[in-house]
């Protein structure tokens, strides 16, 4: 079995894949692709500190590890949902709803 090298990707001690020399996580680039349907050129416009090579490496990492990363994304979304539920409605939102200003 061959080993695939990702020249621009580092794995942090917690297992998080990041673009080497930056604080940008691979999952951030993957979410830009998934959520906004951005291609590499648009991602580059939105993240001018990254090179196209770094962006393509991040996307390759995502697609080569898609199942695990998609599980991680879903777990993070569920965590956000749980936090939002436990916090409840904000005071401002409650007041706006009472005034009929927000659905």
List its salient traits.
single chain; mainly alpha; 103 residues; Arc Repressor Mutant, subunit A; 2 strands; two-stranded antiparallel ribbon; 6% strand; elongated; 5 helices
Task: Give an overview in words.
The protein has helices spanning 26-36, 40-46, 52-64, 66-87, 91-98; strands at 9-11, 17-19. It has one domain (9-98): Arc Repressor Mutant, subunit A (Orthogonal Bundle). Helix 1 crosses helix 3. The radius of gyration is 18 Å and the shape is elongated. The protein has a two-stranded antiparallel ribbon with strand order 1-2. It is mainly alpha-helical. The termini are far apart. 59% of the residues lie in helices and 6% in strands. It has five helices and two strands; from the N terminus they run ββααααα.
The arrangement of helices and strands along the chain is EEHHHHH
CATH topology: Arc Repressor Mutant, subunit A
Beta content: 5-15%
Strand order of the largest sheet: 1-2
Unreliable spans: none
> Whole-Å distance between the termini?
56 Å
Would you tell me the structural class of the helices and strands?
mainly alpha
Mean pLDDT: 91
Name the helicity range.
Answer: 55-70%
Number of domains: 1
- What spatial form do the alpha-carbon principal axes imply? elongated
Give me the number of helical elements.
5
What does the radius of gyration come to?
Answer: 18 Å
User: What CATH architecture would you give?
Assistant: Orthogonal Bundle
CATH class: Mainly Alpha
Main β-sheet description: 2 strands, antiparallel
The beta-strand count equals: 2
């Amino acid at each position: 079995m061959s080993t695939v090298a990702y020249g621009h990707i580092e794995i942090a001690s917690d297992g998080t894949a990041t673009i080497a020399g930056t604080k940008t996580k691979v999952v951030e680039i993957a979410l830009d692709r998934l959520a906004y349907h951005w291609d590499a050129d648009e991602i580059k416009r939105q993240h001018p500190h990254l090179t196209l090579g770094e962006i393509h490496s991040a996307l390759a990492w995502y697609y080569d590890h898609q199942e695990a990363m998609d599980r991680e994304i879903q777990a993070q979304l569920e965590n956000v949902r749980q936090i939002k539920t436990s916090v409840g409605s904000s005071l401002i939102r409650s007041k706006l709803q009472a005034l009929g200003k927000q659905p």
